[in-house]
Amino acid sequence: AGTLDLSPTDLRMLQFACCQLHDRFVRIHGPMLTAPPPELSAREKDVVRWLVMGKSNGDIAEILGVSPHTVDTLVRRVFAKLGVSNRITAALRAVGAGLVAA
Known about the structure:
About 70% of the residues lie in helices and about 0% in strands. It is mainly alpha-helical.
């Protein structure tokens, strides 16, 4: 792996940007980080497990032996419980909350 050769000014700018990003993240997500993880049903956890692995709703439906409509409903419920609006954020939040393993 290569190394970065940053000037002192570039390094300070990068450190400042990281601090700004961290501050913004904590302001946006701080309350969720300290809140207890939401309760997910066993089936919702199954769906999240496969979602974390990058599976589509169709793939998840086939794996679980349910209809794609059922998976869509479960994904929407998971999004609501996790307070997210997309699959990537749902996966990150579920793993971060310890609901599923990465």
